[in-house]
């Protein structure tokens, strides 16, 4: 499938939706689904962890992520809405 020239969500939003769908997903798989490099996926996850939207913990050799859906979206236009509302609007589906 060809990647569109623009989308309604940022790569940060796409990564968050992938993790919501599978909290134990490998970043290699996130990168493939979003259409970015694995390094870009790592940077985005680091941003989301630093901002408090994700908590990362080790489970064996893998990372498992917990999303904090009560936090507000970041842009001033969206700030009155939470990450959880975004998930309810765009329910993650298995691909």
| Mean pLDDT over all positions | 92
Number of β-strand runs: 2
- One letter per element, helices H and strands E, the order comes to HHHEEH
Number of helices: 4
Proportion in β-strands: 5-15%
Structural class of the helix and strand makeup? Answer: alpha+beta
Uncertain segments: none
Task: Bin the helical content.
Answer: 40-55%
Give a verbal description of the structure.
- With 95 residues, the protein is α+β, with helices and mostly antiparallel strands.
- Helix content is 41%, strand content 13%.
- The chain is built from four helices and two strands; from the N terminus they run H-H-H-E-E-H.
- The chain has a two-stranded antiparallel sheet.
- The longest helix is centred in the middle third of the chain and has 13 residues.
- The radius of gyration is 13 Å and the shape is globular.
- 17% of the residues are buried.
- The model has no long low-confidence stretch (mean pLDDT 92).
Q: Secondary-structure blueprint of this entry?
A:
Elements: H1 11-21, H2 27-34, H3 38-50, E1 54-59, E2 62-67, H4 83-89
Antiparallel strand pairs: 1-2
Helix pairs in contact: 1-2, 1-3, 2-3
